[in-house]
Structure formats: C-alpha cells, structure tokens
Please model this.
Amino acid sequence: MGGYGDVELIKENGERLDGRLADELRPIKIEVGVLPAARGSCRMTWGLNIAEVAVYGPMEAHPRKIQRPDRAVLDVRYNMAPFSTSDRIRPGFNRRSREISKVTAEALESIVMVEMFPRSKIRVEIEILCAEAGTRCCGITAAAVALADAGIPMKDLLVSVAAGKINDVVVLDLDKAEDNYGQADLPVGIMPNTEELAFLQMDGDLSPEEFNLAMEYNMKAAKEIHKLQVEALKSKYTGGLE
Amino acid sequence: MVEIVPRLLRDQLKKLAENDSRIDGRNRFERREINLETNILTNAEGSSKVSWGGTVVYAGVKFSLREPYSDRPADGSLMTSAELRPVAHLRYEPGPPSPESIELGRVVDRGIRESGCIELSSLCVVPGESVWNVNLDIHVMSDDGNIFDACALAGIAALRTATVPAEKHDVGEDHPLPVSKTPIMCSYKKVGGRFVYDPNEQEELGGDERIHITLGDDGHVHSLQKGLKGTFSTAEFAEIFDNASTQAAELRNLIEEKVN
Model:
C-alpha cells in the first residue's frame, strides 16, 4: 500500500473514480477451454486484467524428491508477461512472483482432492497478460476453473477477491489507482459453498470494524463470481462458447 | 526417453504420405485456420494474438528510452524474444530457456530484424543523447504445432500496430511506429518422406527435419533455418521455396486486412 490517504479516490457523490459504488466489482468475463494444448484451461478478464491458465496432469512427479507418498503436489507458476505492465518487466521469476506462486499453490492444494493421486503432480501455469491491480485474485479464480475444466476432483471451487480501503472508506475490488494510493488491501480465497477461506493476505491499515466490512464485501462478491465460474464451465458443454 | 509412440506414429504418417494425405486430412500445402487479433492488451504499446489451429501466441511491444551506443549515436534498437513457457505444452518444463526455446527466439528475431522492416535511425530522439529501444516479446500459450510461423506472424502484427509512447516520456507526440515491410515466415516439415507446410503437433512429433523461410514484401529471402536431424535435396528445397512465396502473400494480405 502506498498509504497516500490524501489522494482523492472517491467523488463528492460517493462514486469511485471509475463510477463504481463501494461494493461493486469491475466487469468480469470467464471462458474455459481456451488453450487447446492444455488438459484444462481458463481465460479470465477482470477489469483490464487478463489471466490465462493452463492445467497439465496429474502426472508422475519429477524430480522425485518432490513426490509425496500420500498425495499429489501442485506445481504452480504465476508469471507476468513482459508486456503486461506499463513498464516492461524482465522475463523470469522474481521474489513477488515466487511468493504469489507459493500461496496460490497452497490455496489450490486445499481444494483439490490431492490424496486421490499419490506421488503425482498437477501443473498449474498462470500467465498474466495484462495487469491492472488484482492479478493474484484473477489468477487464483481462473486456476480453480481451469482445474475443474481439466476434470481434477475438487471439494469446491475457489474464488479469490480483494476488498480494501481508500479515503477511509472500505471498498471492494481495488483498481490500479486505488491500489497505488489506497490505505489497505485484503485479498482472500473463498470456497463458495462452505464459505471457508483457503487464501488470505493483507497489507495496510484496517480497524476491526473495517476488516469485518471488507470481509462482508468479499463474501458477497465471491458468491457473484462463483456464479460466473459455474456458468463458464457449463457453457463448454451446452454450446455457449462464442 | 524411449519414444515408442512416435515410432508407431511415424509408421502411420508414412502410410498416409504414400496416399498423399495427412493425419488431419489436409493437403500437403494447406494451412490450418488462422485468427489474428490486434491491439488487444491495454498495457502494451502494440499487441496481437494469433490462434493458428490449436496454437495460441501473444505478442506485445514495449518502448524504453536509452542512451545510444557510441558507435551508432543516431540508431535505436529492436529486441525480439520468443520463449517456450511451460504453459504451452506438457513437455515444456520450467527452468532456464532450453536450446529449442533459444532457437525459436533467434530464428524469429532474425526474420524480423534482417527484413529491415524497422529503420533503426527512425528510433532516434536526440542524436547522441536518447534513442528508443523497442522490445518485442512473444509469448507462446498453447503449442499445437508450427509455433515458429505463429510467433513470426504475431510479432510483425504487433509491431505494425504499435504506437511510440512519446507523450508518456515527454519527448513529443505519440505516433505510429514506422514499419516499412512485412516479413512472413513459412515453415515446412519432412513428414513420411516429403515436406508439408504448417505441421501440426503430431506431425512434429513423428516427422524429421524442418525448414523455416522468412520472405520480405519483394519476395527476397531474409532468414533460413534448417532444424532437427535429416537431409534434403536442392529440388525439395526449390519446391517449398516456391510454395513459400504463395503462402507469404496470403498471410501478408491477412495482416493488411487486420492492421489497416
């Protein structure tokens, strides 16, 4: 968080700079089966963010030291394309993408029935093609859909969404300006059917009351996004794909 | 790895070749359907997406200002890179770029660079002080065969739609990147004993050598590359070289339709 609480991000009429209300999401579109070489795939556009995810496996886990005798491991990579941000980023991993890959893997391992595939691995490749704040949420939400598209048994889908604070107001789904100049960001991963959390991060400054309101917004948004996930998965089989 | 399946596949491809047919029913020099989209990524100054059969490739252009090299004080630079990321296929593993990935990047780069489609002197802002560096990054998302041609097509299409972000850098007005030529790559693969155009994934798995030809607008050749094990005769080369000019003209039309 930049922590610049004095940059004006909410207009006098209470709308945010892009016209959204406090608890409103950016436009979201989810498509499945977009990468023919993959076993399962998903493309998600969320505001200006674009993430595409490919799932491969389950397959034999290599190198052998990563094998677990009682379960599958998830090999997750979150990667930003060099042209995805306003300044080109050098290809390859950095500390940020490694951390996001790690927490994403742990979130997805919590929903995939990994005990069904001992000694194997499931590869999840998250590629961010355009980034405008909230890419980790976009990647995780799309990854859950791609896993389902690949036919991997799961306890539930997973929706990742973030709420935060700008100009001392709790808002849902920060865009780039709100992320840069806001006061807090609280991304979570919610299992929509059980309302359990499989992913949680936060930075910034929130009072307990603000935290509760942010979580309330996140929970409500997760239900909305879950509907879109299910529709996208169904449409592959009902001819709804464009 | 012992490749048992490719041996069966090779036998099948050989039989198909004897009947002059292909595993997906195409003619020898028939290409798969292509869908080209341009300017689709907000944060790139030029972008494209190519869906070529089941192969999916994105390309994005970014600009940065740098000091010119002392021996070329009025020339900017173009850096093209194409990478085989693990997202694109089961067989691509993470790690440092493989020899195959490096070959892809270099062959695509040579075709674009050597065509002279971008005049490096047009990238000069203040001679001796600042010039543009153009970064063309090509991202392979799904490999269903013939990624070389898909990368080259995505690359030139992204350059053709790029805008130089001069305003953002406070060096004048935004303007289209001057691109004077449209180089096109055409790739052929020896499958079942004869060359076919636009190999799919199975033909790549069960075939032999491949040849990549990049042609400029005037039919001049700008890059050639023979890859993988195998030999070919000059007569075989003459046949595919001849075919390449037909294919290149069609693909060039496709770009012109989308870009203008």
Summary: Chain A touches chain B through 31 residues (CB under 8 Å).
